[in-house]
Amino acid sequence: MRTPLERFYPLIPAGGVGSRLWPLSRAVEPKFLLDLTGTGSSLLRATYDRLVDLATDGVMVITGEAHANAVTQQLRELRGSDLVLEPSPRDSAAAIGLASAILYQRDPEAIIGSFAADHVIDPVEDFQAVVREAIAAAATGKVVTIGIEPTEPSTAFGYIKASKSLGAKDAPHALAVEEFVEKPDAQTASAYLATGDYTWNAGMFVAPAQLMLKHIEANEPELYAGIMQIAGAWDTPERDATMNRVWDTLPKTAIDYAVAEPAAAAGDVAMVPGSFSWDDVGDFDAVARLNIEKTGDDLFVLGDKNNVITEDSTGIIVNNTHRKISVIGISDVVIVDTADALLVTVRDDAQSVKNTVAKLKEQGLNNLL
Amino acid sequence: MRTPLERFYPLIPAGGVGSRLWPLSRAVEPKFLLDLTGTGSSLLRATYDRLVDLATDGVMVITGEAHANAVTQQLRELRGSDLVLEPSPRDSAAAIGLASAILYQRDPEAIIGSFAADHVIDPVEDFQAVVREAIAAAATGKVVTIGIEPTEPSTAFGYIKASKSLGAKDAPHALAVEEFVEKPDAQTASAYLATGDYTWNAGMFVAPAQLMLKHIEANEPELYAGIMQIAGAWDTPERDATMNRVWDTLPKTAIDYAVAEPAAAAGDVAMVPGSFSWDDVGDFDAVARLNIEKTGDDLFVLGDKNNVITEDSTGIIVNNTHRKISVIGISDVVIVDTADALLVTVRDDAQSVKNTVAKLKEQGLNNLL
Predict the structure, then answer these.
(1) Alpha carbon of A358: minimum distance to chain B alpha carbons (Å)
(2) In what residue span(s) does the Nucleotidyl transferase domain sit (chains A, B) (predicted)?
């Protein structure tokens, strides 16, 4: 008889460009491939490293075909059979659903865990303890989300409303989930915080593969049929042919609609609060905050530190060009210097980078995106 | 009998890096070779164009050997015999003294006029009218400076104290000069302004070549002997050999000490007030001011305008790289983007660019200077 942890298979859907991190993050080198904390590890590599210790038999990565080389360079130990390359983007239900189906084919008692490739989490030990609880709770037949304890009434995230203790063995902090709610307005977010019942939905969840597939079958039967067909061929010589034939026919929908929300309505969802610090590094203000907190310096240089000269300045400088950069007299500056594009702004305006990206799109300058 | 204007020979000492305009201005491409106003003309070319209409027989240019190609590219009509290439920097008395000596050899009645290569002057017609007055006054046997009417109690310039009218024919505004004074402190500068007797010394002056040489002979006999020797060989096949043999032996001193100050003490100096607008474009704040005044826009792009996207920003952006530049939410910004160096600052800190240059010098990074 195996423990729940002995049946745990993490998977990492690695997608999304992170366009508010332009010009550092690009379609050809999106956020998850970048080192945003100066550690030498990309966000993907760090996500992999957080999970591999918990894994029964490796970590599965799902990403776009365009990133095959970059991902295998960063994760040299990744087996080919654990890398799902999407011929085209079909949204999260297809990606996570297919991975769940493959793992279910390999091990019908598999407990899968899905974790975004582009978040920063610290400390790793606390994260792993929470995931272990989530695995234990999932083993009772639940889709278990990890809820991030809110530090502010953010309108950038969906929320999870939890209530009473689940009472699951080895999962003392697990709570039953009443519902998922979409990104609220500021007033609603403040009200959520006041109750103490709401946590941020960071899209991390752990569940029996069988339970995932049950909900997908019920809610998206066409998607279910397709992913089961691909999964059946996955560990055979028919893998590529089947993938190429079936993938592009899969319905596009989010895992929230295919699994999380209907499961919550059916009383199948639990939540373990994430007591670690978590950041989805949505913009350069977040990149600055994370690194300035970590280093204690009020000016952080990512990239070529030796070629930066500063005077009376704070903020973040990304030097990816090895050019000499001199910055004088700007507080909370954000400078991102890349081979073909330069961003200069301040931390308070970091969100507005999306306007520049929108303009470049309008102008059809796809080579810069 | 020739008029004074028919004996007028302008000369342009083109030197100085303009290090507060780093990283645009470099030793290999100093300020005078740059177009700082987006007109397509460098400061040198504009200086030449202002003077050539007044010239009897061309304009003489004195510059470092390193700039021979750039200068002849910008001034294709310049005769080889009117381009004095300095094998090494020997300061302004040697440069202007030698040009005066050559012109004196060619025309003993020459009236020379010396004008820096890196100032911005507008309108040209007003400038030329003032120079014509200065020529008329010089013909009475004076070293005639052009005094810039101060717009503020600047501590960045020397001042000229003038008194009564010179009463010279065709020079109604010419005044006798009492003395030159060095750059004052702020209090002294304010006191100067209050009297109305002081103008800025912008280093522009007009004088009979013979009078220039008389003062040089009296104050710097060794310099005088050297420049006369080179000048004697200038329009002969011995030019280069003599220049190369003698130039590096010339004493290094400023024209202020060799001519202007002793001439003033001897009562030989007059001043014509410059009613035109004048700027020595000492830093990027000045570059921004000049261009913003001219265009009426509060954000000016020098260089590749098409590749700049701005939002809620004012100031100046120099785009010399054709990279895409996005600037968001910074007022009075100064961004100078070149192939190997990037400056980001604000107009109020434009003077501090010299600190960066000093650091680069300390580090021996001469390729960036």
Answers:
(1) 11
(2) 10-290
